[in-house]
Write a structure and sequence with these properties.
single chain; binds zinc ion; nucleotide-binding; 15 helices; ATP-binding
Length: 434
């Protein structure tokens, strides 16, 4: 089985001397081919668009190539790119809006919410059979999106301060009028009618301003995942692409066997689950979609893996995805690692850490006091190596618990308490409010 997928990655532009966010996207883009790279709302962000790929290996190769091209374009300008939900160091008012009428309108209409949009995400696209299936499948996968957010969490710092959150980008995003968990729609026509109503109301200006955590493409039979922070390591992007593709493929199968879903009172739960993931990432508890109970993040991630295993095996992705997931749980989310780096070397070291990870180059060793093409300082590398060695030897506790037998159950027949999708031939039931 193959299902095509693609990724859009957003990158902050930082000055390698000051480590501050800078509005120099145009200069970087001028040194890149038009195809595959584009501007965003603010001039501190460039976006790369991958090709469409059937395999995670091909996707990874493409992402690495794009990151190296970006680095090659930025470095001669004294700049570097950072894939993370937020850049640790920046200043309000120092970044210009990209001079296009649509973006200027957004700046005028949304004011502080737009001004503070100094954030980057990674978006994942997966093919589905048709738009009706896309709209119904997004409801089925919604309860698992906070788990994907937790795996991506990389934005603890905002304008030089620690927010206490793993993904502060999520909290900034949620202030837009059409962001957060998506509602329940029975068909593409119902979804499109709701979006048309929002545009007619004047609250948003076009379909591109639908910023839900997941959305169907307006034109293609694809689903787009939008909940994740940009990820410094390519491996995390590959992990999330593999998980999302399997989630969507499974959901399409659930939709095919189902005669509809009714989730009209689930939104508060999805919001709460998203807040939980944004607050503590992989470092605390997540809400388990199967039970509605808080569990250690590692247990919820392994529960997701266990659910998806048959599909991941069908795609030939099981070894890659399960290996990357265990690696992610062992390392901890980027937010935790950034805090440790900043505690050792200050906020500039946190920027250096992100720049080095984003490059996707093998990193040469040698002491460096500031970012250059060799990246992270020797001291940070030594600290990291010591932690990793301690972790492997068991001196540091693992942050997650083992999967239980209950985790290995496939998608439940009948009515799942959280997914609440009604499967034939189970009798119709109302959602239980989750
Ligand atoms: Zn639904």
């Amino acid at each position: 089985m193959t299902v095509p997928m693609g990724v859009e990655e957003e990158f902050h532009i930082v000055d390698v001397e000051t480590r501050m966010l800078v509005a120099r996207a145009r200069e970087v883009l001028d040194r890149l081919p038009d195809r595959g790279f584009t501007t965003e709302f603010l001039q501190s962000v460039v976006e790369s668009n991958s090709g469409v790929h059937a395999s995670l290996d091909a996707l990874r190769t493409d992402l690495v190539r794009s990151r190296r091209a970006l680095d090659d374009a930025a470095a001669p300008l004294g700049l570097a790119v950072v894939a993370a939900g937020t850049a640790p160091l920046g200043r309000m008012g120092a970044v210009d809006v990209t001079p296009q009428p649509r973006y200027q309108h957004m700046a005028d209409e949304y004011r502080a919410v737009a001004d503070e949009q100094l954030i980057c995400g990674a978006q994942f696209h997966v093919d589905v059979p048709d738009r009706d299936t896309a709209v119904r499948a997004m409801c089925v996968v919604s309860p698992w999106l906070p788990t994907l957010l937790a795996l991506s969490a990389s934005s603890p710092f905002w304008l030089g301060a620690d927010t206490g959150y793993a993904s502060w980008r999520t909290m900034l995003w949620q202030r837009w009028p059409t962001s957060g968990p998506v509602g329940c729609f029975g068909s593409a026509a119902a979804y499109d009618a709701a979006v048309t109503g929002l545009i007619r109301s004047g609250v948003i200006s076009d379909v591109g301003m639908v910023y839900y955590d997941i959305r169907p493409s307006a034109h293609q039979p694809t689903l787009e995942l939008r909940v994740c922070d940009a990820c410094p390591r390519v491996e995390t992007v590959v992990l999330l692409a593999g998980l999302f593709r399997a989630l969507v493929a499974d959901a399409c199968e659930v939709v095919r066997r189902s005669d509809g879903c009714r989730h009209h009172s689930r939104q508060p739960w999805l919001r709460a689950m998203t807040w939980r993931a944004a607050r503590s990432g992989l470092d605390g508890r997540l809400i388990d979609p199967a039970t509605g109970q808080a569990r250690p993040a590692g247990a919820v991630v392994r529960s997701l893996l266990a659910r998806l295993r048959p599909t991941l095996e069908e795609f030939g992705d099981w070894e890659t995805v399960s290996g990357l997931a265990e690696e992610a749980l062992g390392l901890g989310d980027v937010a935790q690692r950034l805090r440790r780096v900043a505690a050792d070397g200050g906020m500039t070291s946190a920027v250096d850490f992100l720049v080095t990870r984003t490059r996707a180059h093998p990193v040469a060793t040698g002491p460096r006091a500031r970012i250059d093409r060799r990246g992270l300082s020797a001291r940070c590398r030594q600290n990291q190596a010591a932690r990793l060695a301690a972790h492997r030897s068991g001196a540091l506790p693992r942050r997650a618990t083992r999967a239980t037998a209950a985790d290995r159950q496939p998608f439940a027949a009948g009515c799942d308490p959280m997914t609440a999708t009604v499967l034939r031939p189970a009798p119709r039931r109302r959602s239980n409010g989750r």
